[in-house]
Amino acid sequence: MSLMPRAGRTWTSGALILAVALFVAAVANVRFYSAAITAFGTGMNLWPFYLSLFLSIVALLVLLLSAFCHRVLVKPVLIFILLLSAVLSYFAHAYGTVFDSQMIANALATDNAEAGDLFNLKMLLWIGLLGGLPSILVMRANLTFPHWKAETVARLKQAAVASAVILISGAAFSGHYAALLRFHREATTQVVPAYAMLSAIRMATHALPSSTPKQHVAVGTDAALPAADAHHELIIMVVGETVRADHWGLNGYARDTTPKLRQEKVLNFPDFWSCGTSTAISVPCMFSNLGHDKFDKSTATVTDNALDVLSRAGVNILWRDNNSSSQGVAARVPYEDFRDATKNKICVDGECRDLGMLDGLQDYIDRQKGDILIVLHQMGNHGPAYYKRYPKEFERFTPVCATSDLGSCTSEQIQNTYDNAILYTDYFLSEVIGLLKANDGKFETAMFYLSDHGESLGEYGVYLHGAPYALAPEAQRHVPAVMWLGEGIKHDIKVASLEERSRRKWSQDNVFATLLGFFELDTSAYISNQDILERMGAELSRVQ
Description:
CATH class of the largest domain: Alpha Beta
Distance between the termini: 86 Å
Number of strands: 16
CATH topology of the largest domain: Alkaline Phosphatase, subunit A
Radius of gyration: 27 Å
Number of helices: 23
Structural class: alpha/beta
Number of domains: 2
Strand content: 5-15%
């Protein structure tokens, strides 16, 4: 007997709801059942529990659908659920994606270019077979409706039976369900489409406008550049994309993915950690003074960040972006978009290279008076189309994965392609250093590079990034970070002390204070022990 309706049969709305619930529970939740079996084992005594899981998901879906499926809404709601479940199950199987509130926000912020990288034949076939085909069957189903009172009673009875199934299952296997919710909670994030819908409701509730709108919070209003400092700073901060620390050559990776940086003898930070697992969180978090534990994007949006404080003090700020956006960080400072070929002179087949952000930068520097901070936001290793992220001449490691369908590539191919992209970032950073060297006679120069977050490359069946921070693997949280310091700044620093500090554990929580410290800013917003260089300006100048 088929789970889905046949066109020639007459269906009641209750039977159609049950058929769709059975189909989604059986087909779209395979990854959830796999996670549950991994957590509890395969003993024969556990199969009644696994059967109760299946029945509970069916019942949960029936409850959900019964609440919204009324007469003319039946087919549209069921088709929406089928298509949504197909999409969610595809990303769960292909990339191990968990659709929590953060991931949904990331999906909504995805631009056309990023979305295009995700499309492939496998995705279209998956969604077509698991979502499109059953949706056509639902659309063609011959539905009959009794009087609205009888219909309402039928829905209430169906909801009551579903509730009873959930309660009986929970009571019969209370110990197993308690363990699932307390010790294997990550498995519950795979329930399709319930977890994603719950996350969407949470996100929407959080986004509802407050009766008392948040006022803008000014930070560092007393900030001032040192009056006695005759040497102006030129700092270039490079915000990397999706580079994980254990593939960074300077961190001891078996492959030397950072040969040019090694030649430059940069200061490497092997124990550096991200604030989030996605660009939408990590980028605004690293520039804010809130820190990972207190960070909230809605609060950060109305709060001054490091760029605002520095700009108010008189530092010339420029943000150049070859990624999706600054995530609101550069909302109040000069911003230039380099993902467009009209601005970026180095674009091939629609892919604009990070190197293009350096075009005309010397002219900008020459026009400024005073201190300068330039932020370059890379495309870097943005996945899943790693093969697009570098020119052909950087394809040192082969064979490569020349598709966005990572599931069709071997682990070796994926890692080769990913590492080639890091080689291009290494080259890009060496060019940034070359620009700074050319200006070292006029400024105290420095480069600060760090990746926004890491990346999963198929370990435990997980790809890409964006996992809930508490559940995210180290690969998504542990990131590379380096500094290059010009001769002028080196005179202000005890190198031996810096080498010791570079071995400490740092995180993106330290970026705010470090940026203020670069410019020797005098402000109550600066906390010296959070500065990676610990006020290399004001305090060190007293020693000179």
